[in-house]
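Support case: tryptophan complex. Customer-provided input:
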Amino acid sequence: MEQQEIRGVWSSKVGFIMAAAGSAVGLGNIWRFPYMTGMNGGAAFVVVYLLFVFLLGFPIMLNEFIVGRRTQRNPVGALENLAPSTSWKLVGGLGVLTGFGILAFYSVIASWTLGYIVKSIEWGWFNPIEIDKIEVVFNEFIHSPGEIIIYLIIFMLLTMAVVYGGVKNGIERWNKILMPILVGVLILMIIRAITLPGALAGISFYLKPDFSKINDRILIAALSQAFFSLSLGMGAMVTYGSYLSKKDNMINSALIVCSFDTLVAFLAGMAIFPAIFALGMAPTQGPHLVFVVLPIIFLKMPAGAIVGPLFFILLTIAALTSTVSLMEVVTAYFIDEKGWKRHYAVIMIGVCCTVFSILAACSMGILPQVTHLPLIQMSFFDVLDKTFSTYSLTIGALLLAIFVGWRWGLKPAIEEAQNGNKNFREKVILSIFSQEITFAKIWSVLLKYVTPIAIFILILDSLKPSENYQVIGYFTAFLIIETGALWLLIRWLADIKMNPGQIILVPIIRLLFLFILGPLLILIPYLGYLLAFILAIILNYVLITYLLKIPKTKIWNILALFTLFEFLGVIILLYFAFNI
Ligand code: TRP
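Agent response - structure generated as follows:
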């Protein structure tokens, strides 16, 4: 109890549900869901998405709540607590890293939303715009670095301010009134959209599934969208669950959050698709989609000059309650595990993340070097989105399900869930062949078998050779060679055996270094080499001392070789693979 009071608990049950729903409901529902649906075949995607939300998302959300409330810790601390001195805490570490990565690209879209508050007021009240100019203005907007960076910084400061205020003061309060208003505004928009001439084609695209369109790309897209939208797979719900009290009914909470989140996404689609088709636009245009369609709905709407700005204000706040949950995970980690003060953690994380966000924002066409990253031909923004939302989230959810299902055990997990909901284990809902089926049993089977197997197959499936197989090949080869070389080197030079966690993690982290060092070389002529070299020394020093914990006396030759390798790695990669 004492620990709980220091960390803060939600002041009421509704407060928790609101906060969790606030994390879940955000740009994922209103920006990402419609454009993913548009790019992946419409209604068939929606059906698969719904299936994944309730079959895989719901059990995993409950799983995260359980781990959080049981341990009262951030994801890393939680796993350390349940499986002390094992490599399992790396799963939590992956979550913390993912939180940072998602925050970096998510803030870019959030800053567009913030900018759109101003723009929609301007269009509605002072400077009416014609419908066919909207796309042009949007493109100008995302290509003006000054404007974008200012909004980005304002948005990041807002996030920092709320996280700084702490769980109870900051996070809970916002959501109570705002969520219902958001739903109300969405309904107004739907009424306008479906009464536009030609809207029917959009409704049928959105609601009439053509299952022949389903392929493996759609399956992984739906899975990642489900986890992204529900804020799963990186410990956000572990962290929020850690502020729960033992009396709270987590099963109902998970069900309510999943349903509400899905409802908001569904409504957003219902407003957007009829409008897209009525306006004769293509649903497949990707991340820009809603920013072009929504303003048009408002222009065509009576009182659009009020509803439009109101909508973008609500959307900005919805985005804010989501970024807060992302930053809270990273912050809680540094506070609990590293003993940082809250204000220090918030400032450090905020500043670092802003740097990455600015790069991501500039990769929408401002800086050609990051807009078409060589070889992979993706923008830095897309790389962040793909790496963190598609792969990190699904892998994180998979590993946590395996951890609870197979390592920690379902028994203590069910006991934890039983607190606050007696029916979970006791109420028999069905009797088949004298087997009594309870909610707890259904959840166990879902968590232990269904989720891990399904997620694993979907991830494998998505890795099948595609246009990008060459890149995946290069990186896999690099990882395998690095792993072997490092393992040998460290044994030889320092007589130290790495444990399995380190063997996996060290090469991956070094691969990430390449992504930091590479851009330096490309972006800054000549001086970039020197900077990259110095940075390589620093990064590797941190890696060697913190992760490998190699004693100070043995560091130097390893550091020299690591740095040289890293630097050569960058040059080889740039020269051969990226043709620079
Ligand atoms: N779910 C949020 C949205 O839909 C985004 C988000 C917040 C998130 N926290 C997360 C996604 C944690 C994944 C993991 O906008």
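Residues 23-24, 26-29, 102, 228-229, 231, 234, 236, 322, 325-326, 393 surround tryptophan (CB under 6 Å).

Case will auto-close in a few days if no follow-up is received.
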